[in-house]
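hey so i finally got around to running the thing on that chain from the lab meeting. sorry it took forever, my laptop kept dying and i had to restart like 3 times. anyway pasting the input first so we r on the same page abt which one it is
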Amino acid sequence: MPLNQIAQVHAPEPQMITVQPFDTSQVGAIEKAIRTAELGLNPMNDGKLIRVPVPALTQERRQDMVKHLHKVLEEHRTAVRNIRRDGNDAIKKAMKDKKITEDDEKRSLDEIQKLTDDEIKKMEEMSKAKEKEVLEIK
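ok and heres what got predicted. didnt touch it at all, straight out
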């Protein structure tokens, strides 16, 4: 279950996250989940509130974040390509069923390809900007 559905999550300061469960009996379970999530976080529990200090990013952690970013980017590229495939299949089916002309089919397939290329380019630009931001040491 997502954390924000069972607790209020706040960031009172840049290096601290607080988690206040709606049901205080869940404090231990939430703390354990954060600890075992392999995020490099070490939560502290005071019975009603969980404080999670966020350590400063090391170069190694930044590289891990960039790797994760690339993985997410590839998943999104695949999702866009799957949507393109579904759209192309629908157009080809409409052509086969003689609901559209060959010119309409060609124009639609080209338009879908153009939209796909544009979306992938936007995602890659956002990824490059985020990678630069993550790797930048402040």
